[in-house]
Amino acid sequence: MNDILLNKSELKNNQGIIISGSKSETNRLLLLQALYPNLKIENASNSDDSEVMKNALQSVGKSSEINVYHAGTAMRFLTSFYAIQEGLEVVISGSNRMHERPIKILVDALNQLGSDISYLNQEGFPPIKIIGKKIQGNKVLIDANVSSQYITSLMLIGSSLPNGLEIQLQGKITSIPYIKMTLSVLQSLGIKAEFENNIIKIPHTEKLTNDTFVVESDWSSASYFYSLIALSKIDTEITLGYFKQNSLQGDAVLAEIYQNFGVQTIFTDNKIILKKIENPSIKNINLNLNNAPDIAQTIIVTCLGLGITCNLTGLHTLKIKETDRLQALKNELEKFGASVSISADSIQLINSVVFQNDPIKIETYQDHRMAMAFAPLILKQSLVIKNAEVVSKSYPDFWNDLKLLNVILKY
Ligand SMILES: O=C(O)C1=C[C@@H](OP(=O)(O)O)[C@@H](O)[C@H](O)C1
Ligand SMILES: C=C(OP(=O)(O)O)C(=O)O
């Protein structure tokens, strides 16, 4: 597919965009399904990251090498899974970027419990070699400030360990809604997990009492439609399925955040209607996005489009995601004439910009969210999105769904 030219467009109302299941919920459930084969998953994600996870789990015992490409959750969740596969030996590797994404905190925690995991290249980073063993340990201390995925990874195997698992979190907990999502998924399947005062307790559980899970659609994917509506004319509306008001996904906070940008969310049976109801009166917004790091890119681009300055904080994890997202955002936002300053955990959009006639080229840095976060600016000016196929990491149908809204794309 490579580059896509997007001509400046005006959005057409649409009542039927169906986003596939949350990749976060799906990848948790796929792992649990490998441990509890009766589990049935409905509305699973069609993302590459979930395909990677599914394929890796289907090749257990058949292949001694697993490549997870760019999928952070697959890398982290499979590490714990393989650590408890007695008698199996496996190497997990990924893309070049994956080999720069740290995993030491998780490996140390698992080895503390009795696992046998070692590094093949650089200490602390994939690729890793795992020799599966029976783990007898049932208490572990882990640093919670770098990635919640390490904690989820441990939580997902906890109920399969002979003595269950008690995880004590130390330091400031990052991306906490993802830990709560894991907790809720476990509880809803009948695993009596608890999370109180920085301690997570997961009892050994033989059998799930509820064995069907319906995955809600992906709120992070919905964020791009929030941005499109925020940048549209008053009364423009889009209906998205399948979403609910009591979501397990922290990114559902979008409904609240986008009120600041004149977007109303109406919850119907199992869908949401996003409607532009007014032009925002605010000129500046400050948000701490520690609980919702994946929507930072969407929000700052919306602010650029609306001429609102912003200061987004709580974002230290952005530097170790698919790319250094803070640097990537600064590079691309400045192409529009904005001034942007970044620190180790924040990004500030300082001025508004004047849109131009010539298309601006957006580099995507092998990061799906760079491509999708910038796309809504086509309501302001033409764009070229480089390596547009990156979107398939989380949302393979993204460009097709944009076409449903009257956006004109040329490959
Ligand atoms: O558990 C999950 O499904 C995720 C947790 C978050 O990662 P961090 O905890 O590393 O911030 C998030 O950014 C990622 O997209 C998905
Ligand atoms: C950070 C992300 O994914 P992961 O860490 O699972 O690669 C993401 O989807 O934005």
Automatic annotation (TrEMBL):
Keywords on record: Amino-acid biosynthesis, Aromatic amino acid biosynthesis, Cytoplasm, Transferase
GO biological process per UniProt: amino acid biosynthetic process; aromatic amino acid family biosynthetic process; chorismate biosynthetic process
PROSITE patterns per the UniProt record, alphabetical: EPSP_SYNTHASE_2 (PS00885)
Entry binding sites for phosphoenolpyruvate: 23, 72, 101, 149, 325, 369, 393
Binding site for 3-phosphoshikimate: 23-24, 28, 147-149, 175, 294, 321
Catalytic residues (UniProt): 294 (proton acceptor)
EC class name: transferase
Pfam families: EPSP_synthase
Enzyme Commission number(s) of this protein: 2.5.1.19
A cellular component annotation (GO) from this entry: cytoplasm
Functional pathway: Metabolic intermediate biosynthesis; chorismate biosynthesis; chorismate from D-erythrose 4-phosphate and phosphoenolpyruvate: step 6/7
Main subcellular localisation: cytoplasm
The keyword Phosphoprotein belongs to this UniProt entry's keyword annotation: no
Catalyzed reactions per annotation: 3-phosphoshikimate + phosphoenolpyruvate = 5-O-(1-carboxyvinyl)-3-phosphoshikimate + phosphate
Cellular compartments annotated: Cytoplasm
Gene Ontology molecular function terms on file: 3-phosphoshikimate 1-carboxyvinyltransferase activity
Top-rank taxon: Bacteria
Domain Enolpyruvate transferase as annotated: residue spans: 68-402
Matching InterPro entries: Enolpyruvate_Tfrase_dom, Enolpyruvate_Tfrase_sf, EPSP_synthase, EPSP_synthase_CS, RNA3'P_cycl/enolpyr_Trfase_a/b
Family label: Belongs to the EPSP synthase family.
Complex formation: Monomer.
HAMAP family recorded: EPSP_synth
Function (record text): Catalyzes the transfer of the enolpyruvyl moiety of phosphoenolpyruvate (PEP) to the 5-hydroxyl of shikimate-3-phosphate (S3P) to produce enolpyruvyl shikimate-3-phosphate and inorganic phosphate.
The protein's name: 3-phosphoshikimate 1-carboxyvinyltransferase
Organism encoding this protein: Paenimyroides ummariense
